[in-house]
Amino acid sequence: MRTIVFDLDGTLADTSGDLIAAANFSFEHMGVGALLDPEADQLTAFHGGRAMLRLGLERLGRAGDEDEVDRLFPHFLQAYGDRIDVFTTLYDGAMEAVARFRAAGDRVTICTNKPEGLAETLLQRLGIRGEFDHLIGADTLPVRKPDPAPLRAAIENVGGSVERAVLIGDTNTDRECAANLGIPVVLVTFGPSGDAVSALNPDALIGHYDELDAVVDRLIPRGQ
């Protein structure tokens, strides 16, 4: 049995639109209006809520104002939780790939740096929670990726083994996490970083989920 572990944001789904909308809501709460652009600031969105808040404050000339970041963060979380699936879309072919792995008897799970509650809510809203055997979020354990503990838990909690697992992700955090655990990593080039992820020297790259089956078969041959 193989275990296919997916990252969530930027790998399975483009969540940047809802993340940026929530950050802009926080800035509007300050009375300064929207400070982030849904297109130009997409990559920052995948670095998390605090990264977006810091970027907006920097544009106000308030770089390094961590007290304000801390004050705004609860507003961001509330806004994001309320409207978590307005703009979010699944990447083309993602769930078809998941279905193929499940049909072949592989375990399919998620290891994300999104807080577990928000990840569960998003997957439920998208109607796909039942397609994954388990989920590990940023706060499921005391540590998060690139620490290997969450990835190990994601594998072992579905009865898998590290020796027969692969991580599908989109960032250096995913690459480092997989390396720290000693498993292969496949990075997607359709995420926010695009082809730039090739510089991270992953075990494989894919430009569409139609390519994933053959890549995983090469990295973890079926039946061995």
UniProtKB/TrEMBL annotation:
Record's protein name: phosphoglycolate phosphatase
Family classification: Belongs to the HAD-like hydrolase superfamily. CbbY/CbbZ/Gph/YieH family.
GO MF: hydrolase activity
Record's keyword terms, sorted: Hydrolase
Keyword Transmembrane helix assigned: no
Pfam families per UniProt: HAD_2
Pathway where it operates: Organic acid metabolism; glycolate biosynthesis; glycolate from 2-phosphoglycolate: step 1/1
Enzyme Commission number: 3.1.3.18
Catalytic activity: 2-phosphoglycolate + H2O = glycolate + phosphate
Enzyme class, spelled out: hydrolase
Superkingdom in the source lineage: Bacteria
Family annotation (InterPro entries): HAD-like_hydrolase_sf (IPR050155), HAD-like_sf (IPR036412), HAD-SF_hydro_IA (IPR006439), HAD_2 (IPR041492), HAD_sf (IPR023214), PGP-like_dom2 (IPR023198)
Organism: Donghicola mangrovi
